């Protein structure tokens, strides 16, 4: 017995010391592509931070974030969870057919969000539209492990906000039914990412057009192209399941003559090819998170300017709208401190579209800064 | 710092071991003391002054008690100083908040809450220093002359913040003179790893389940019991895991700390349970409260009163909230009934076990839920008074998720591994097989533990509040 104990001791001691020494020697990483977030930096040692305990907290986070083989340990963690028979960890349900579906976080700010949206509608002359998009947990409940997802109340939250905004004079664009209807033909969400697919966005676009009395472009007028077949999205980064098949990203490309796209940083395009080579491939649409994007279409002469206030669900949706407005301004309210009503006036918006998904809406900082 | 976190495991501990073992024997205690103070200061950079105050007071008391030997009256003064300082610290930093809240709500006055944070391990180190002075007064031990040795006894980090409660007499010899053999070092370290596995792989996991059940708006009968089962496992694996880590580290350094747990969940009565659960605390209350009060030597009625006092105090020791008092009284009452009726001895063993487990689980319910309203709501679900049926979807879903870890935990509550090892003794093949399996499992679980700590943010330590 003693011999094996000795070997285990030597192993564990070497393991512990090797982890710490290598972590300290290796240079710090600033950003983790895998987790799509900035890693903790070496905390600054001051008497104040030490006495308050902040330094100790930050040091703990720093050592864990910068840990050598961090992604390997994350994978081992996922494997251990799976081996223990767990079908839910890190806020993700491990579902049938390779689906990874994010847990619905209990909402806390529904009333506040409804009020904020209604406020804008009441304080602008522009025509306001609200499109709240359900997420995979609402449309693929049959994929969830048995008994899971009991707390999902996206339908109730949507109804509450829709009702409040409708009362304030907003135009409610309901795409839930349209998505439900196209479900047998198309895959509505990525299996490894929290976003909807371009196919789903197209179905929603048709519903939007029907609602707004516009004529949608038929599928045949786009060149539908698989731009990536190797997409592992944000939900995968949390679940890290072994042998997970990759997702395919599709783009509906169209003739861009007469259309100009400009970012606050300069001229651009609706699609950013360079992201296809990186981890965050969804950022291909509308070039990720830009603070302000202006799309002008010289072929359209209807005098309408659309302001889009949104989360990232809109990124693959907005390209469909370019043929229906002279000008589209996509705004990230987090970067615009004067609020939506002021912005609408600045850009001369005739229409405002609010587009959010129902899972992250509750904590969306874009809505918080909406006034 | 907590033993089961990255800064301790990968940085503090290896560095300490290196420094400790290259230190010449003469200054080993000093090295241990310095690291212990750093350890405490990392978690409590300000309250370390309280630790120093409590220990210095009792060092001086010890010397004074020795100096005035034979002069009872003067000795009593010093003894009172020790008790007053230690209980005073506990009173101010642990109980003042509860006292003010209660006065405010009973008399409707608006005294400002003091808002002091509970110092880490205050319930443990005050009990240790106090017991030292009392032991010197009773002449159970000789006062320690070396300040370094004494401080090492009080502050040594393996048992500083969460026990076991070590008495000075347990380790006074070893403080002056100890040797570590390679075999002791290894079995100590393996014990430490076992404790780490218990804490990270079981307690933290079932703790998640308990949080889910506790937070649920509605609980079916089965779901409420599932939650209670999860908490019962969490608190045992959490605390006994921590004790294992402490005892293991002690052994690595050549100390032998007293055992703290002896498979409490296989007990056959509540009396038996308290001989197996947190043994150093029960022992402390027995020797420093129950027996001085007269124990069982002053008649039945007085004995029952003594038991009631001890259990009310035990309850309050666990936390400054009324549910803890309730919890202590609950067990006090059960123990009195067991004493008076002699019931458990008459029961067949399996029934005794079942009876004890149910009462223990109900006890943990009182212990775990501080808010008395929430406690009442949970209790009504436990007894099936809720309108949520026997078992719902949520129950089956979570049962499915946690079945493996719950079963593993349940098996590890029984002494199956020691029994296996005993059986294998003498049989070379069996011993070898067990050894290799243990080694491979240990290597794998060590890596998994680190992975859990890197990836998972849920890592509380329940006994830190006491």
Unreliable spans of chain A are none
- Beta strands of chain A, count: 15
Q: What do the pLDDT scores of chain A average to?
A: 90
Computed over alpha carbons, the radius of gyration of chain A is 23 Å
Bin the helical content of chain A: 25-40%
Sheet bearing the most strands of chain B, described?
none
Q: Supply the helix-strand structural class of chain B.
A: mainly alpha
Specify the number of helices of chain B.
Answer: 20
Structure description:
The complex is a heterodimer of chains A (371) and B (466). The longest helix of chain A has 24 residues, at 2-25. Chain A has 13 helices and 15 strands. Chain A folds into two domains: 1-68, no CATH class; 100-368, no CATH class. In chain A, helix 5 (110-122) packs parallel to helix 7 (154-167) and helix 8 (176-182) packs across helix 9 (198-211). An eight-stranded mixed β-sheet of chain A has the order 7-6-15-13-14-12-10-11, with helices on one face. In chain A, strands 3-4-5 form a three-stranded antiparallel β-sheet. Chain A has a two-stranded antiparallel sheet with strand order 1-2. Chain A is globular and about 85 Å long. With 371 residues, chain A is of the alpha/beta class. The two termini of chain B are 16 Å apart. The longest helix of chain B is centred in the N-terminal third of the chain and has 36 residues, at 72-107. Chain B has two domains: 6-178, no CATH class; 184-268 and 347-465, no CATH class. In chain B, helix 9 (182-215) packs antiparallel against helix 10 (221-253), helix 10 crosses helix 16 (349-368) and helix 10 runs parallel beside helix 18. Chain B is mostly helical. Chain B is 74% helix and 0% strand. The interface between A and B is large, with 45 and 54 residues.
